[in-house]
Structures are given as structure tokens and as C-alpha cells.
Design a protein that fits this description.
The chain is mainly beta. The protein contains 7 helices and 24 strands.
């Protein structure tokens, strides 16, 4: 059954405007750098091609093909620019209707699967994060906007010939404590998590239509140790810690004493330690890192791991009314902080919108909000892998 045409959702492709859908889903998430869409409809274009002698007048719209550039607007507000990635169709037994579904990704989708610099260069000197990302994104027709401090230039930044565009940029961004996010329409954003507020709160008895929640300890730990090694006299800075000995007291963070004499050639082993007071039983974990000049300390990294693990340990999904909220009727968007009241999941405070899904179907318009703890996407200046290891890996 075809629902009445909704002028609120419009797909622009091949010089046509389509707004007659059975189902629409548009998704953006901090977990996936590019947004995606899925639309189901009666494919009048292919039906006309199949039954050309029987169809009159011409169909409402022509057939959509994979690879076509497209854009999607909600209430005439552009929210998605990208490409049709796949078209699937099914014809009924009587040959009277062809049901089709098209899916695709936004303009940043090609950054996930395509090479960063197929023809070189593979190494840059004294380049900023913004310049590096712009150099990679420019051939794809994608802009870059810095919305936060991107830090100092990299003295040397190298990638492998086979490195994909997005992983290469993310590796560099982590060294500057920056989060990469697609705006869905034109640009890759260099930003921080939760820098803006959502248009409204999320609350039972107010706008929530249901809930699913997860509160997990599976990847949370009572004690997080970060161990790294400074460069020694022999230039070794591979991040390999010296043999570990038991701490004097579990959970105290007491690190084994290091002998400057014995470690002189290989470097000094450094240990950071942070605790999560919400984890009430002994659950220790050790993370190994490189420690180099200019990067965060092992103690800062230990505290950061605890914050991120805590934020990702809470996950809630809320369908809410419509796509818009608040006095300005603004769209719900990812990477915004929102006040959340959910007595069922025992939440009463700020949460971060990890993802949004705009839906339109026989039940009308709604948004599914994916919320996580506000610290889930915190960033910290992570140390770079040594050039020595990088070069060995790319030989």
C-alpha cells in the first residue's frame, strides 16, 4: 500500500524530486563517519519499463540507478548529500507492482573505503591536522572545517600507500585529541564531543515513545594501568614495557620500582593508574602505549580510558515524536548533549547523542535517538607510533 505523498521528505536525484515513499530512514552516528539512508517505494519507473505497452500516462518518476548523486531534504532543509550505493527490487506475482529499496551514504562515504594518497606523497613535514585532512578530502570534493583547537603542526606525518583515507585522518586526529564527524552535506568537521546542546530534553511522560537501555560492565575496569616507555640512550622507543612484577597492593596503583641503570639503554618504563569507583569488584586492565615528547602523559591516558569506558558502558535508545523539537523546531542531531530523565534506566542527567535515525512510515515521522554517557567520545592527545615501527610495517 502506498501512503499519501509526504512533502516533508524529498529525494533529489537525476533532475527529479521524489517524495512518495513507503518507508524512509536516514541515519547518522558518531560510530560511523558517514551517514546512510534507506528508502522503500513502489518503483513506477521500472514498472513502466517492464510493462511499457500497458502503462499510460508516464510514471510519476523514472528509475533510480546505483551511483547516482543525490540529496535529501526534510521540510526543505538539506540534511544529506551523497550517492545511491545500491538498488534492490522485487516484483509481485501478478506483475502489478515493483517494490524497490535504495540505500546510500553521504559525501564522506568514499573516505572509508578509498585510498588516502594513491599516488603519493607518503610523508609530510610541518603540516597541521587541518591541512592534512584538506589534502586528503579535496579530490573527493569534501570540505574540511575546524571547530576546535587542532594543535601544533606535525613535524613529520607519514602514511602507507595502502592506507584508507578515513583511518589515516583518524590516526592523525587522535594525536591531537580531535574528533572527526561528517556534517552529512558538505564537510568533514574537526571537533570535540558534545560541544552543542540538543533542541530539547529526553524525558518519560514528555516526548519519549519507548526505551531500550544497556548498562554494561563488560568493558569497564576498577583499575586501569597505562604503561609506556620513553626513548632510551639507544633510541629505542617502541613502547615495550619491562617485565612486570606484581603491584604491592591491588588497586593502589603502586608501580614496580624502575632502575635507571638497568633501563638506561632501553628507556624508562612509566606507569599511569586510574580507578573507576563505580566498579566495586577488582577488575584490573593494562593498556600499552608509546610515550613521546609532546603527547599526553601515561597518567592522563589512564584517566581518559576510565572516562571513555564509563561513557560507552551506558547506551540508551529512545524513539521520540517527529524529527524536530524545542521552541525553534530544530532537528535532532548527533554529537549534542541533552538532558535525559529515565527512571526505568535510572538516568537523570546529561547524555550525549551518539546517533540519530529519522524515520517516516505508516506511523508518521519520528526520530530514534541513540544516547551514551557524556564522556564516551572524549578525546586526548594520543602518542604516535614510532617511525621505526611504521617503516618496518610498510616494507
Amino acid at each position: 500500500m502506498i501512503i499519501d505523498p509526504t512533502r516533508r521528505v524529498a529525494l533529489y536525484v537525476a533532475g527529479q524530486i521524489f517524495n512518495k515513499w513507503m518507508k524512509v530512514r536516514i541515519k547518522r552516528s558518531l560510530k560511523e563517519i558517514c551517514g546512510s539512508f534507506e528508502l522503500e517505494y513502489i518503483d513506477e519507473g521500472r514498472l513502466a519499463e517492464t510493462l511499457a505497452d500497458l502503462i499510460s500516462p508516464p510514471p510519476y518518476f523514472q528509475a533510480i540507478k546505483a551511483g547516482m548523486p543525490c540529496r535529501i531534504a526534510l521540510d526543505d532543509e538539506k540534511v544529506f548529500v551523497g550517492f545511491v550505493g545500491k538498488v534492490t527490487g522485487k516484483i509481485d506475482g501478478d506483475g502489478n507492482a515493483i517494490t524497490a529499496k535504495i540505500t546510500g551514504t553521504d559525501i564522506c562515504g568514499d573516505l572509508v573505503n578509498c585510498a588516502a594518497s594513491p599516488n603519493g606523497p607518503a610523508e609530510w613535514k610541518n603540516i597541521t591536522l587541518t591541512q592534512f585532512c584538506t589534502m586528503i578530502c579535496q579530490p573527493f570534493g569534501i570540505g574540511v572545517q575546524a571547530q576546535t583547537d587542532i594543535g601544533a603542526p606535525f613535524p613529520v606525518l607519514a602514511i602507507s600507500p595502502h592506507d584508507k583515507a578515513m583511518p589515516a585522518m583518524e590516526k592523525a586526529a587522535r594525536q591531537r585529541g580531535v574528533l572527526l564527524v561528517s556534517d552529512g552535506v558538505a564537510n568533514l568537521l574537526l571537533t570535540t564531543a558534545g560541544s552543542t546542546r540538543a533542541p530539547d530534553q529526553v524525558a518519560f511522560g514528555y516526548n519519549v515513545l519507548g526505551t531500550e537501555f544497556e548498562d554494561s560492565w563488560e568493558k569497564r575496569f576498577s583499575d586501569v594501568y597505562v604503561k609506556g616507555q620513553t626513548a632510551g640512550a639507544n633510541g629505542n622507543h617502541e613502547g615495550v614495557a619491562a617485565p612486570m612484577t606484581p603491584a604491592t597492593t591491588p588497586g593502589t596503583g603502586t608501580a614496580p620500582a624502575s632502575s635507571a641503570t638497568s633501563a638506561e639503554a632501553a628507556g624508562i618504563v612509566m606507569t599511569g593508574h586510574a580507578t573507576d569507583p563505580e566498579i566495586t569488584r577488582y577488575r584490573p586492565d593494562v593498556r600499552m602505549v608509546n610515550t613521546q615528547s609532546g603527547s599526553s602523559t601515561v597518567q592522563q591516558q589512564a584517566e581518559w580510558h576510565v572516562r571513555v569506558d564509563r561513557g560507552l558502558g551506558k547506551h540508551n535508545a529512545y524513539p521520540v515524536k517527529d524529527w524536530r523539537a524545542g521552541p525553534d523546531a530544530a532537528l535532532w542531531r548527533p554529537n549534542q548533549l541533552t538532558a535525559c530523565y529515565d527512571p526505568y534506566a535510572e538516568i537523570d542527567g546529561d547524555m550525549l547523542i551518539e546517533g540519530t535515525e529519522y524515520h517516516y512510515d505508516e506511523n508518521g515521522a519520528r526520530t530514534v535517538l541513540e544516547l551514551v554517557g557524556p564522556t564516551a567520545y572524549d578525546r586526548i592527545n594520543e602518542p604516535a607510533r614510532s617511525q621505526k615501527r611504521h617503516q618496518a610495517r610498510t616494507l
